[in-house]
Amino acid sequence: MQISTLIQAVRQIQAGDKRWVPAELLGPSYFGAEDQWQFIASNMSNMCPDCGSIDLDYYWGNELRGLFPYLDVVDLNTIYAHVHPNCRCVLARIGNVQEPDEPQQEPPKELPMQIAQYVPEGQTWKQALQNENLPETEYIDLVDGLYSFGYIVAAVANLLKKRRKNVEENKQDGN
Length: 175
What we know:
five-stranded antiparallel beta sheet, 7 helices, 5 strands
């Protein structure tokens, strides 16, 4: 940062504009009140009940440090939650910073038929995503449907598909 930029910042603050920030210091934030994150549990066989209970829950950026004190920022859109030692769960940014053109539509209040057909009676779509008995193709269709109707963003959809693949591999290794 150049001295002239610092001098300009001091003058702005002295003039009463305490919100001015030099352009080179602006960038993506992780812990702001406007940043929204979704918890994605690993769903591995050794996943703890704490992680399972908050799977797919949403959090604001300003809540993260208090709720996940051992978090580790991976990239602009991913944070390792580190809820406990050996935790493989992540927080995925809602509204991908690297893809600003991605539409941020409001999901419908009722599940569209294209999604509802994969959700067992009496379950929510979040519970259906945790259902290991759901066949692989139906699971992928469910995730793709949730993404296309705006319930989840692309980063979350990709993490869910990766998580399911890991679960399937673990099942095969256990047999």
